[in-house]
Amino acid sequence: QVQLVESGGGLVQAGGSLRLSCAASGRTFSNYVMGWFRQAPGKEREFVARIWWSDGSTSYKDSVKGRFTISKDNAKNTVYLEMKSLKPEDTAVYYCAAKRSGSARYDNWGQGTQVTVSS
Q1: Measured between alpha carbons, how far is 104 from 22 in angstroms, rounded to an integer?
Q2: Other residues' Cβ atoms within 10 Å of the Cβ of residue 60
Q3: What percentage of the chain reaches a pLDDT higher than 70?
Q4: For 20-49, what is each residue's pLDDT tens digit?
Q5: Contacts of 78 (CB under 8 A, 6+ apart)
Q6: Which of 119, 36, 45 shows the shortest CA–CA distance to 83?
Q7: What gap in Å lies between CA 95 and CA 68, rounded to an integer?
Q8: Which phi and psi (to 5°) does residue 63 adopt?
Q9: Which of these, 10, 9, 12, lies nearest to 117 by C-alpha position?
């Protein structure tokens, strides 16, 4: 059974930085895609970034390109989201998710971690 546990959220001023972590367990993830999503109050959950565990390929939501970096540590089975130049509009609950490569849906989700950016 896949388990995803996020950490690293918090309160930061605009322009600041945070690093989120997602510790993954329960299986081998070499054939998985790991994603970060976020949901702001009153809004739908949206894609932020993803990384293919097999080769480290990445993709990002346009509004976070150049500010956010997704990465992984194979030895720790952990995925990171480094967030810089944070803006108040980045405020949301951030979720880690996992799916098999080629699958349309993310089947496994973490509990979420709150990121609040003050102006």
Answers
A1: 21
A2: 18
A3: 100
A4: 999 999 988 989 999 999 999 999 999 999
A5: 21, 22, 23, 24, 72
A6: 36
A7: 15
A8: -70, -10
A9: 12
